[in-house]
Each structure stands twice: as structure tokens, then as C-alpha cells.
Amino acid sequence: MLSVRSLTKRYGATAVVDGVDFEVAEGEIVGFLGPNGAGKSTTLKMITGFLAPTAGAVRVNGIDALKHPRKARRSFGYMPEGVPLHPELRVHEYLRFRAELKGVPSRKIGDAIERSLDQASVTDAENRIIRQLSKGYRQRVGLADALLSDPPLLILDEPSSGLDPNQIRYVRELIRDFSGKKTVFLSTHILPEVEATCDRVVIINKGKKVGEGDPRSLRSERKQAFFVRFVGIGTTAAFREALQSASYRETGLGKELELEADGDRVRGRLQVPDEDAIDALFRAIAGAGLTLRELGGEARSLESLFTELTTEEAPPDPVEDEEEDDEELDDVETSEEDDS
Amino acid sequence: MRAGWAICKRELRSFFVSPVAYALLVAWLLCCGGNYGFVANIYSSQPATGGSDNPLTMFFGGTLLFFLPLLVFIPIMTMRLLAQERAEGTLEALLTSPVSERAVVLGKYGAALIFWAALWAPTLIYVWITSRFGDVDLGVVAASYVGVLAVGGFYLAIGVLMSALAPNQVVAATMTFLLLVLLFGIGIFQFMAFDLTRDVFSYVSIWTHMQDFAKGVVDTRALVFDATAAALMIFLAIRTLEWRRLTS
């Protein structure tokens, strides 16, 4: 349905999007995941023809989108980031305008508006002025707009950004409902969003594709073995004995162990299956009467990317935290909510 | 062209649901009424010194009161057309629909022309009033309105181009205003220059154009000039939009 080949956008010497490749099959819901500034929006703008790529090819529904942009645009509905709408119009006026733009035949426009309002669950706002709508409603009007011509492909840029948790859940359910009926390509910087809505994920960072797969396999990849480095005081022999006497099956220690003496210190590196093994490593060294000076995991590119992605959904708000500390009653209530 | 018509309708709808349109209309009618009142006053008190044979001839292009509002109102009418879409991000939704840049620009230009005609429509009352106190040659009046549309078509096209180039409405309005003042200023140069230069200035001067039209002289050279100049501006505006895809 959507095929992107070595898509590149350069501004002078800097490549904002650098040779990105991926495919989206018919009926799939694919997430385009990356931290802010990774080049997601630029990629979507190139796919939809708002920006011309420096190099690469885009095929939408089998049509070369660079050679026949208008024909290709008939095959998708696009919701740009921030959902720009004409605030002075009523919802149905805006959708009628958009339907005319998209070449929906005049006698079918009424039905198309009704259907897309229904699909985006925004029928009750039909006669309201867009300026007076909440962010969640505007987002759904944008979705209704994308659905107007009943296109096989939906391209959504950050469909849940700026919404409150209830609205986010709602939009995710709406997207989930398209499964099997429409092909959806959506961008997001929130990992849980991908896990909640997508069959597959394409990960981009600093303009380059860094991963692709189904969200579950990526999650298990996150638990995959990684390397730990440490510095202790003692002899290499003592460390070797302490770490290898422990059974790998029980503690996960002892694999790929490398030790190197450095004066009275020992520098070591070993593979562990998961983060729990770090505790075991600490206990094994302390149990053998050895001293540990430094301990740290070795960062992997995908791992660090995920850290960046997963920590962004609920950024800590220092002001709010302080308020909670001041008001004890509120604090209690919050923690109760957390428990339930 | 259906998309262009949709854009034109949307533009007019957005304009007429905003108070700006009515404020503009009122201000415009105050200016026109002032102009007509001024002209009518001259003719009623000193019919011989009017300079033209008919107050309507003087109303259409005989006084500075006709041209000055033009220079102010046209930038205000055109500044929002494309610059606002760009500033508010709606340009992205517009240009990722299956429409061409040509349809976008022509639709917006069409909306500006329709609003321009709407500004002038109430002045038909002046024709009626004048006809009650003297003879009015409807052919001359028609020629005057042809002139108004030709000159307006040219100036509005400049505004559309500036709105396509400018990053926001204020810049678009300012640039349009400066260009219009410059073009209008060229018309004044004809009174200072000689021979060939003088002819060139008078050909491109809307002052001369309007004075001819107001006398009932439909000079095809003036029409061709206004039409080609407008077409060039619109062509450049379309190119500007296409060029934006490559550079932004």
C-alpha cells in the first residue's frame, strides 16, 4: 500500500531524513516511532507531497507519488501534525469544503460527511464552530477529514499529541478499529501508543531507520542480553572464581567474562541476560569478600533510543511534585489512586 | 477546476463570517461616499469648473480620492489569502489534497475579484442618483466599471503574489502597499518626463487608464496591459507555491 525507498531530505549539508526505507502492507496498522526531531514529520510531509524529497521514491497504492502527486493523493487521507483547521467555519462547512477539494461527487458529499463524522465519532459537533471545539474534538474532526473520500490509506501525524489521557485512549481505540479495514500509517514519539495500536513499528532516530518489527518482539529485544562493565579491588583470579562459581542458570552470570588487572584493581566485562542479573553480580562479588568500585551497563543504541522514547510519555513536572509535597491530603489521595 | 471553485467559495465564506469583511465594506463605502460627495459638491456649486462633463467621469479616476483608498484596501483584501494559510498550517492540509497549486492560486484570486466586485456594487447607487439630476450615458458608466475591474484585477494579482511570497500577513500587506504606491507613482512621472519615456509611463499608469475608461474610452491596450500583468503575477504566485515544496 505504501512503499518508501531510500527517502532523503537534506537542507544544505544536514540530512533531516537520511535514506529511510520501509513498506506498509494493505490492512496493516504501522507506527512510525521516534523521538522528537527524528524526522518523522518531514518523512510524512514527503510521502504526502507537501515537501519534495532530495532523493528517494514513494509509491502509494502502486502510484509513483513523485511523478503523479495528485493521483497518489486520492489514495490517502492525511492528518497533519497539530490538525490545522479553519477555525471560523462550522464542522460541516469545513468537511463539505474538504470533500469538494478531494473530488467527492457532489451528490455523495452529504453521505460522505455523515459517514466520516460517524467513523470519527464526532457527529454531535456537526453544527459547531471549529474555534469553539476542544482539542480532542478538533483531532477527531481532522480524522473525519482524512476519512472523507473513504481512502484505503490513512496517514496520521501524531494523532494523540496534546490530548488528555481519556481522549488519547479514545483516539487509540478509533485507530484500532480500522484494523483490517484500512491501512494506517501513524507517527508517534510514544512507545506505549505503538504497543496499544500498531501491528508493526518502524523506528527512526536522527533521520535514519534504526529498527523495524512488531512491537512485542521489540519489547523482548529490550530484555535481551547486554554487557556490564565493572571495576573492583582484588585479583583477577578471585573475581573469576566469584563470578564463575555462581551458576549461570540461576544468576545469569559468568558468560563472556573478560577480566584485566590494572594495578590493584580489576576491570571486568561480562554478558548478563537482563537487569536482574546486575543484582546477582553485586551479591556474588560482595559474597566473595571483594570490593566493587564501579558498575554500569553498556548502552546499546536501540536500548538508549527506547529509554528516550518510553520516558517521554509522562515527563516529570517539578512544579506539580512540589505541590503534592505541600498538600499531604492530596498526596494520600494520589497514592490511593495509584494503588487502584 | 472544481477544486478551485471550492477554494474560492471557502475563502469568501471565511471572509464573510469574519467581522473584517464588514468593517472593510463600511470603511470602503465611507471612502466612496466621501469621494462622490466631494465630486457632487463641486458640480452642484460650480458646474463649469468640474473639468469633466459628468460627475461620474470625475468620480471614476478624476480625483485622488478614487486612487488612495485603492492603495490601502487592496493590500488588506489580499494579505490573508495565502500568507494566513501558511502561518496557520492549513496550507499543508490544502496542498496534500488532490489539488494543483494552480487551482489554489486561481481559487484565491477569484475570491478576491468577487469581493472586489462586491465592494463596487453599492456604488451603482451613485449612478442612479446622478441619473436623477442629469443625463447619464450608461455606456460610459459600463466602461468605467470595466476599468475598475481591469485595474483591480491587476492590483489584486500583485497582492496575491505578495501573499504567496511573504511569511505572514503583515509583510504581505506592507509589500503590496509599497508596490502599489510605486506603480501609482510611475503614473505621476508622466507629467515630468518627455517623449518616449512619457509615453511608456502613460501606458503603464492606472491614472491614465482610469481617466480613459471614465470617459467611456475602452482602450484595448490598457485592457491587454492589465490582463497580461495580472496573468504574470498569478503565474509567479503559482510558481512560488510550487517552489516552496522544494525549498522549505
Q: In a nutshell, what does this entry contain?
A:
Chain A is of the alpha/beta class. Helices cover 40% and strands 27% of the residues of chain A. Chain A folds into two domains: 2-220, Rossmann fold; 223-298, 2-Layer Sandwich (Alpha-Beta Plaits).
The largest sheet of chain A, given as strand count, sense and whether it forms a barrel, is: 6 strands, mixed
Give the N-terminus to C-terminus distance of chain A in angstroms.
Answer: 43 Å
- Strand order across the largest sheet of chain A: 6-7-8-3-9-10
Major protein interface? A-B, 26 and 26 residues
Question: Which properties best describe this structure?
Answer:
heterodimer, A: 340 residues, alpha/beta, Alpha-Beta Plaits, 2 domains, elongated, B: 248 residues, mainly alpha, 13 helices, 82% helix
Description of the structure:
The complex is a heterodimer of chains A (340) and B (248). By secondary structure, chain A is α/β, with parallel strands linked by helices. Chain A has two domains: 2-220, 3-Layer(aba) Sandwich (Rossmann fold), CATH 3.40.50; 223-298, Alpha-Beta Plaits (2-Layer Sandwich), CATH 3.30.70. Chain A contains 14 helices and 14 strands. In chain A, the strands form three sheets. In chain A, strands 6-7-8-3-9-10 form a six-stranded mixed beta sheet, with helices on both faces. Chain A starts with a strand and ends with a helix. The relative contact order of chain A is 0.12. Residues 313-340 of chain A have low confidence and may be disordered. With 248 residues, chain B is mostly helical. Chain B has one domain (25-96, 116-247). Chain B starts with a helix and ends with a helix. The mean pLDDT of chain B is 87. Chains A and B meet through helix 2 and helix 3 of A and helix 1 and helix 6 of B.
